[in-house]
Amino acid sequence: MKGLQRRDALKLMGAAGLAASMSGCSVTGGENDDINSKIVIMGAGLSGIALAAKLRRDTPNAKVILVDKDEKFYYQPGFTLIAVGIYEASDVVYEKADYIPQGAEWIRKNVSEIKPEANLLVLDDGSELGYDYLIVASGVEYDFEAVKGLSLEDINDTSGNISSVYTLQGAVKSNELMKKFSQNGGAAVFCDQKTPMKCSGANKKVTCMSEDRLRLAGNRDKGSVNLYVGGGKLFGDPTYAAAMTQIMIKRKIKFNLRHQIVAVDKSSSTATFEFWTAYRQNGEDKIASELIDVKYDWLHLPPKQKGSEILARAGLTKEGDKLNFLAVDKYSLQSTKFKNIFGIGDICGFAAGKTGASVRKMYPILAKNLADTIKGREPSEKFTGYTACPFITKYGKAIMVEFDWEGTAPTLECFGATRESYMSWLVKIYGFKPMVMNGMLKALA
């Protein structure tokens, strides 16, 4: 493939993925041909479309309806690749209509209210939609405003020095700020939230790649790379936390645990962090904290993420959960409140399982458990909590991060649990996108 341009390589990999997926594209019936239930999927992102495609194949006589106003589908794993200068915005934006499975109905509206006792949805135009079974695949909402002085407009404003790879415009802006940082140096500050995040490694990828870009430009001594983590460890899984710690130390990336960003002053380019420490006093768990100001030339952060208040008003969240995540059994993905409601993807009320690789494991499990429930059986399949991501650490290197409820869970020995490799880099750059676009969205991967 010597001399092959990046876009040509991407097209070639996409074509290869499509060719590999051509077998089995037709809708087939089987043991679930007798299911004719009305199944409504709230949300038509990766989770919703993949599940709809699976249901159309496995339960061909069921009525499958997707409800989502957004006309565009975004290949979100590509946002970090935009930030590091490998993808462009046009590489990640698709027409959703091209991926809605044949035979599924798509209602281009959003849900404004759920009435679970009545098996009813109220849509944003006031119309009502009944269901026999509801799948919540609505994803998370971004709350940049949770940081005092910050707004979504600040992230997307091309003239500012604050960015985030969690929006398309923010990813493009991150690339521009990263290029500027690699040329001029300065203080780059990266922040992680202590609340659950989808693709929780995204900010750390940008951190590592910014350091590498600075080094490759010959300006490593001109810049400082600083990571502030809201939680008490770099990674939830201890194996990857240890590996990431070694990378940070070796590359002189300063990392600070238990530092939650709480405010920004854009006029002075100052970020304020709450540095917290847990302790026990008189048999009680307590938290001591202080505020610390940090100057930045470039600030990058993920938003606080939460579910919609619609779920809380419908009584579908855990009691006391202010983040409004859907309360589901972490194994069956069935609502803990209503047996005819399930959840899939980022909206589920557990910290892990918020990646595309998790969805790849979830949607076949949910389809089977839904069929079990419709037929009066207990759900028979279990989600293991599997999460995976090729964690890019430098140009040409990545670690294949894989873990589940039990801990580290490598599935391919050639990648190794914590080894930086070119193979993992290739999977991230060329392998994942065809698998998602030509595989998962058609329930073929």
Automatic annotation (TrEMBL):
It holds the Pfam family Pyr_redox_2. GO terms for biological process: sulfide oxidation, using sulfide:quinone oxidoreductase. SUPFAM superfamilies: FAD/NAD(P)-binding domain. Coiled coil: none annotated. Transmembrane segments: none annotated. InterPro entries: FAD/NAD-bd_sf, FAD/NAD-binding_dom, Sulphide_quinone_reductase, TAT_signal. This is FAD/NAD(P)-binding domain-containing protein. It comes from Campylobacter concisus ATCC 51562.
